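lol ok so funny story. i was supposed to be doing the assay writeup but got distracted and ended up predicting the structure for this chain instead. priorities right. anyway since i did it might as well share w the group, maybe its usefull for someone
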Amino acid sequence: MGYSRKIIHAGDFLLNIPRCQYMNKEASLSATVWKRLATSDEETSITERQQETLDIISSDSSYIILAGTPLKVGKYDEISSGPLGAYCIAEVNSQKINIQLDSGNLYAVFVDEGNGFISTSLNAILNQNKCKWKIDKLVLSEQILTGSVVGKETPFIGIERLIRDGVMNLDPIVIIYRTEQAENNNSFGRLNHNKLNSIEYCSDYMLSVLRDYFRVIKEFVGDRSVSLGVSGGYDSRLLVLLARDAGLKIQAYTYESPNHVDELRIATDIAQALGLTLRRIPVRLWGDLDLNSLRNNIEDTLLYYDGRTNDTMGTFSDVHTSRIFRQCLGTAYLNLNGIGGELFRNWQTLPPYPTNFDTWFEYFILAPGGERFFKNSIDKWTFYEYIREKYLSILGEKVNSKVNRSFVRKYYKNIWLPYFASPRISAENRVAFSLMPFADSMISSVAISISNIPKWGEEFEALMIRRLSPEVARIPSSYGYSFHGSGVRKKALRWLKTFIPIKVRLLAWKIKEGEQNTCGVEVAPLLHHSI
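and the output, tada:
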């Protein structure tokens, strides 16, 4: 049977797959597609997005549903090999469903195999079953205490995330899902492993890969504009310079509040140096909100983040709402953010020697005070074992592995980005096209292969910034120094911090914070609403 192809861009989709035992005259394979917020009226909420239902089983069409931002120039007339970006591409007809996931596993897709649902929205699947879902308490604990769930599990028994290649035979429909690997056809050639000790060579190589990526973004966007935030750190500065270098039309913004005074000043200087108009977006911390505003923010973020938690959110402040994101987007066609740039430096200021997994986990992931969640030491030990086994399995590490700089870089690429940051990129794509260029597998794979980056610390990323614009590199940062060689004393202090054992930092933090569990308090309302 021949099919004509119809291409649909979606903010979210839900596939309702009839199981053989449920088939009757009224049963049909259907797809519900929600449009992005940016294509809707300004006052439209996520729950009010325009939606369309497609009856596929009786159609002679093959639908290609594009969710997220698959970065490919040209027509999506077939599922091609290895687009860049964060996305899910579903090719659906009356006999088979092909699902292609991005190579970085950034864009989330969920499946309720027992009831025959596949969706880019966890809430959409939950809403199909009006009875109470059974909860996996261990997974729920992971979500509360760490801010995310790693792996295929969700807190709801029976719903899983698609994370690797596989086949599901939901008779009469066969579902094939796969993660495509994007090839790096870098114009600088292959990485010369004999030159990995040269920071100049490695930074130039990384910069060439980034420039190639941004050229693809330019082809995707054309004459339309991109939106990006400018702040006081490394990643936003590198991002805006790469965008300018690629010839993109930039709509720059920065946050304005009593907590963003330094960042606003730095962002203003950067924008002036680049000749950009800087939009100031007023924001409030959640602790400064009245009860009604806080309630509005909670309801917004619960739906915007699809009932999921993520380490880039944490609270219900204005900056994490879809309302503020739409203000930041303006009239831009594509949003860019700098998440993933941590791989260009030793962002955790880890020491050059290994540390114990539990100590590292409690300090960087659980946060001091989170241990008070457990009734006793047995509960804590059970949870730590569960986390350790899961993390080490994904990273391919041995059970007794120590945590060193190489381990943490693998953790960041293979765990933090696809699980902790994934809800952020999925949420932003509900509103408009959105990318995390530094998190893309094409970029992160190269960064991981340059093993000396942690040893070079912040100098590696600073060198790329200087290559792009010495003038902008001279502007002071939020760290108290510029990226052009000044601030020797403060840089030395940050370098000395790398030699402080994690165990000592953990003890100091516990003393300072009084072992208050801030993590669970902020995340718990989000989970309560989802359940």
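Residues 21-25, 73-80, 515-531 have pLDDT under 50 and may be disordered. The first strand starts at residue 4 and ends at 10.
back to the writeup now i swear
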